[in-house]
């Protein structure tokens, strides 16, 4: 579910023609508001459209999700805040459709517990990224290659052994917890523009959703 290899983040350290920096408070508020918007859209879709998306062929839903995420990842490369926000929606909305199909199988209690645990991890790692930015900024290459290794292992397990390994859920949680600290540290290193705030929120959104899904899987296994 990651778009990290598709986004040219180097552009975020410079100002494009016509862009202006905003205050730190406004910058952080835009990041927070964008994240809350994404989660709110997901919650509404899960609450209101479960039956609708449950009636769609699952393979078609997955293919549509992948296509939309790739489009969203491409659009977030733009230096326009509006286009980046449109790209963000191309990621958030299809993910809401997927969650509408997946979450009913887990039950309200497990979903709530996963939300609480994910929220706690997010706050802790954002605080760590604020306190130790240099440490997290130095973890980028390690996190990237670990992500590639996880993708290869999980694809191999699915295609060759036709199963998943429980330990991978814990590894992914640790990996994307690190990514939260890394992406938050990078967000604070970027030029404070509306576009960078939306792009940073997109990165954090993907980190948080990956953690949430894996936490849900771990809780389900344990129950």
TrEMBL record:
**What is the similarity comment for this entry?**
Belongs to the BI1 family.
For this UniProt record, the keywords arranged alphabetically read as follows: Membrane, Transmembrane, Transmembrane helix
- Keyword presence, Membrane: yes
Q: Superkingdom, according to UniProt?
A: Bacteria
**Membrane spanning segments where?**
26-49, 55-75, 82-105, 111-131, 143-161, 167-185
Subcellular location(s) per record: Membrane
In Swiss-Prot or TrEMBL terms, this protein is called Bax inhibitor-1 family protein
Membrane-related topology note: Multi-pass membrane protein
């Amino acid at each position: 579910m990651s778009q990290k290899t598709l986004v040219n983040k180097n552009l975020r350290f410079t100002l494009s023609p016509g862009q202006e920096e905003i205050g730190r408070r406004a910058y952080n508020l835009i990041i927070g508001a964008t994240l809350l918007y994404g989660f709110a859209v997901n919650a509404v879709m899960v609450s209101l459209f479960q039956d609708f998306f449950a009636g769609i062929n699952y393979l078609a839903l997955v293919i549509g999700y992948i296509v939309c995420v790739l489009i969203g990842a491409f659009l977030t490369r733009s230096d326009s805040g509006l286009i980046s926000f449109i790209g963000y929606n191309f990621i958030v909305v299809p993910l809401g459709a997927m969650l509408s199909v997946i979450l009913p199988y887990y039950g309200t209690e497990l979903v709530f517990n996963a939300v609480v645990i994910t929220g706690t991890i997010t706050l802790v790692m954002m605080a760590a990224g604020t306190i130790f930015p240099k440490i997290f900024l130095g973890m980028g290459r390690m996190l990237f290659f670990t992500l590639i290794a996880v993708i290869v292992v999980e694809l191999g397990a699915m295609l060759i052994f036709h199963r998943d390994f429980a330990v991978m859920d814990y590894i992914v949680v640790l990996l994307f917890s690190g990514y939260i600290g890394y992406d938050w540290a990078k967000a604070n290193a970027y030029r404070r523009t509306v576009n960078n705030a939306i792009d940073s929120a997109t990165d954090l959104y993907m980190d948080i959703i990956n953690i949430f899904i894996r936490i849900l899987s771990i809780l389900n296994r344990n129950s």
